[in-house]
Design a protein that fits this description.
167 residues; two-stranded antiparallel ribbon; mainly alpha; 38% helix
């Protein structure tokens, strides 16, 4: 992949996992959970898993109505520890969450505490090993854990492209 197709800002941080995590936490770009640094190479690897352009807009994310591009989804996926084969499901989840019929803006603003659930079914569920049976929210299921982390634990604006909603 041609890395010039990536438009996100580049940030230089020491090549040390502890330093990267401290930097992101200091900036308020993480919820305190460790992240995987989203290097250009890792983001490019994520993008090779889908037949979409990096700047394709999947939807607008409230409350700032920022565009959720395929590149931004890939960056967040790397940070959450997702594997490239998860990208089609992550894009589908972003499409669902930003669909105006869902009205994510209202769900974020209410004091009622609604929860959003995403059901993944079909061949992709088995291909990426999403658990749909007992212990679905428990340990031992990487795909379940990383999809949850990507969409639910982004506490800061740079990592919060879909806010705090449980998948």
């Amino acid at each position: 992949m041609d890395l010039s197709a990536l438009h996100s800002d580049r940030i230089e941080v020491d090549d040390d996992l502890w330093a990267v995590n401290a930097f992101f936490e200091e900036k308020g770009w993480t919820d305190g959970l460790p992240i995987i640094p989203p290097t250009e190479e890792r983001v490019a690897q994520m993008l090779t898993a889908v037949q979409r352009g990096p700047q394709d807009v999947i939807g607008s994310v409230p409350p700032r109505w920022a565009p959720a591009t395929v590149e931004k989804i890939a960056i967040n996926a790397v940070m959450a520890g997702c594997l490239p084969q998860y990208m089609p499901v992550l894009i589908a989840a972003a499409e669902a969450l930003t669909d105006p019929k869902l009205n994510l803006y209202a769900l974020q603003a209410t004091t009622g505490g609604p929860a959003i659930m995403l059901i993944v079914n079909g061949p992709i569920r088995k291909q990426i090993n999403i658990n749909g049976g007992s212990n679905v929210l428990g340990e031992g299921w990487r795909a379940n854990a990383h999809h949850w982390t990507l969409y639910s634990s982004d506490a800061a604006e740079h990592r919060r492209f879909l806010s705090r909603h449980y998948l």
